[in-house]
Structure formats: C-alpha cells, structure tokens
Amino acid sequence: MKTYKEAHRPASDFESRSEYLDHELQIMKPKRFRLNLPGRDFRFEWEDIVPALAGTLGIIAMYSSVMMAWANGLSEAWDHVTLGKEFAIEVSRVEMIIPAFLFVILASGFLNPRANLAGNHGPMIPLIASIALAGAHPLALAILIGVLGLLLSVFKLGSRLVDLTSKGVAGGLLIFLGFTGAISQINSIQSWGMGLESETVTAGSMGFLGLVILAVTVILYSYLARIDKRWLAIPAAAAAALVIALISGAGFDLQFTTEMGLPNLNPAYWWGSTEEGWMLGLPTAQHFIASLPFAILAVAMWSPDFLGHRIFQEMNYPKKTEKVLMDVDDTMTMCSFRQMVGTAVGGGNITSSWGTYMIPAAIAKRPIPAGAILLGLMVMAVAFLGSPMDVAVWPPVRCIALLVGVFLPMIEAGIQMVKKSTCAQAAGVCIFTAMVTNPVLAWALAMFLDNNGLIGDKDRPKNLSIADKFVIPLAILVVCVSAVFTVGMFKGIYGIQSFL
After folding, report:
1. Where are the transmembrane segments (predicted)?
2. Is residue 10 a part of any domain in this protein?
C-alpha cells in the first residue's frame, strides 16, 4: 500500500480544486501518537488559513469572555478578591501560549492528527457566574474535569453518556443555557452603549449604539446562515461590530494598555499566594465539592459536542476518508490533559472540542494537522503582541462574538433537538427545573425522570438496561444533589436572574 507521500499528486493533475482536496483526504494515513511530518504525512494548503483564522478569532473572544466571567463572578463571591480586565487579559494570554504549543501544535498537529484541537467549552460560559457563586475553585474544577474526562476516554464511556441524555433533555439544556447567555450579552452591550461618556459624549446619549450593533448582527447572521457560510459568523460579526462602534465615535472607550511580550508563566504567581494572580490560593476539599457537579455536567456535555463535530466532517468529506475523521476518545484524552495542564500553569479556560476550528475546516475539506499548526502559531503570536487582546475584550467585539459563535447556535441546536412532543415535554421540565434551581441539577433530574419514562418518551425505558435506567442516572442525581446542598447553592436565586 502506498504511503501518503507516494500517493500524492499535484493539484494540476485534477480538473478542479475540490477533486484535489478530496484526493488529499482519501490518501492520508495519520499516525496515532507517533510523529507526523509535513510533506511525508500531510501538506499545507491555502485552505488551511480559513479555519486557522476563524479558530483564532473565535478562541480569543471566548477565552477573554471566560476570564472576564471568572473575574466578575469571583469578585462578587469572595470578599478579598478584586479582579478586572487586566487580570482577564493576562490569564487569557497564559492560556493562549502554553496549551496552544503543547496541545494544538504538538498534540493535534504532529503527534495525533485524529484528535481535534482542545478549545473552549462554549455551553459552560453562561454557567461561570453560578460556578463562582457556588464557591468553586478554577483549579479544582479543572482537575475534576480532567480526571472525569480521562476515565471516560479510558473506558470509552463517552457514547454511554450520549445515550443516557436524550434529545429532549439535551435540547432543553441547550435552549436554557443559550437563552440565558444571549440575554446576558445583549444586556452587556446595551449597558456598554448607555455608559459611554467622554468630553464630547454625554453618558446615555449613545444608548442607541448597542441596538444598532445588535440589529446589524441579526441581519448579517441571517444572511450567512442563508448562504451556508455561518462558519464565518464570528470574524464577520465581530469585525462589523468593531467598525460600527468606531465609526459611531465610541473608539475613545477602546484602550490599548496590554504591552507586547510574554505574560507571567510562573504557576506559583497564579496559585501560590492569596495576594497574587487569582487571589484564591490552592483549592481545598470544600472547593472540590463545590466544583464537582459542574465538572460532571461539563464532561457529560463533551460527548454530544465531539460527535457533532465529527458528524460535520462526515457531511463534508468524501467517501473513504475514515482515517482522517476525528477520534472522539482521543479528543477526550487530549481535552482532559489540556484542561489540567492549562489551568495548573495559571489558566482558567473550560475546554472542549474546538468547534470554531473544526466546522470551517470540514467545510474547506481540510484535515486537522496543517490548520492546527497554523492556528497554534497565530494564537501564540496574538498573545505575544498583546494589543489584539484589548480589542477582543472590548464589549462590542466580545459580546457579539459570543452571541453568534456560542449562544445563538446553542439555541438553534436545542430547538432542532426538540421536534417531537415527547422531547418537548422533557425539554420543558429541564428548562423549568433549571430556572427554579440551576442547570446542573436540572440536567441530572430530567435525565433520571426521562430514562424511567416519567417524562418524555414512555417507550424509552424499554430500550435501556437497569444500569442505564436506575444505577447511573440515580448515582449522578445523588452526587449533584449532595454537592448542591453541601455548598449551599440554594442560597439566593440561581435561576435565570443569576445570568443577567
């Protein structure tokens, strides 16, 4: 059998560019956990620039949003903690250098091109406020997510969790998280517009600006969806929001304060003291208990996320390309290690399969490795330059990128899952429970009721084993309820209001 290098033919041998890209996918034979080299095992093509650029823009906005959410939530939850924009930018830069080099360039680019890049867990972003208020610790959460993810990957239980969470429950969870997250970003951008004030602008006089940006975003997003170019939503909408804000005279609010260079890469600075970095110190047993239900939910949501990205490849790749499709278990392994390592060195991202890279890569008919290397280099360059991070955390750019890149797709995906009346019933119970309590407990309770036929499809229990109906769902429910009561998550209101 010919190797990739022997089977490769120049693009001039094919009638179209599409045929050449199809042939490239069909002849690739990526090695698993062995060295893959450019020229010998894969090639760089200009199409790799598109997913690399989209993934870079998407991850900058998402990383900065995650860190800003941690900064705001922890500042509210802890009396001695005061974190702001500068902290969020520096932690984001840490996440964009060490993990990008280890788990994007080396892992997915050279060592295992079948493992999709470890990026950001979009559905968890609207939960960070609740995570912080519950008394969780970012490092404790990362360790738990990493350990649970490794257990799932080793025992190949990812598909089991997919089966346990029906489309109705998953759809309800996505709709709730997408809705609450979207409302939060809409309120943020409108508050930003109302709060603009300078020597020439009176506070409140530019309140219309937020509405204008949102209106343009809706039109642009709808158009891109119409022409099947929604993978361009993040860069296109973020750029449009930036231009509109600058043209409208809001540029005085954009401050370039981040200097070129490397952030503090010493883990002891971030976690070794309560007066530096996160200002939280090392996690205690109480922190692990508070983080556990959110870690379970994060890992439970990995499998459908991973499978969705793989299916997107299957929809766009030609036949006989099974060897280049992302491996769900290998991706879970990489995400688990990346979660623990990235946070241990000072980060705070909640990781998952990198959708803003995979979706455009699949559309462009490109495999993982070449684009991963380009993306990793772009991300590290942005982190070193510094000033692009100031643009990324500017409210009109950050909020719009999250709206079109995370929350609107979550709502759409949730609605698509809820097609039958039985699914709608399960989704309704999940949404209502999340409003009354919190999304973690809502997912656990709805899954238990649904798997036993008490809500949703009454025939569903007939196709499940005793373990799937009672043992696993009940165990997860008991763990979540115990953790919720232990950390006092029912103090105050943890429904929709906690996200606004």
Report:
1. 49-73, 124-152, 164-186, 206-224, 231-252, 288-307, 368-386, 392-411, 423-449, 469-490
2. no
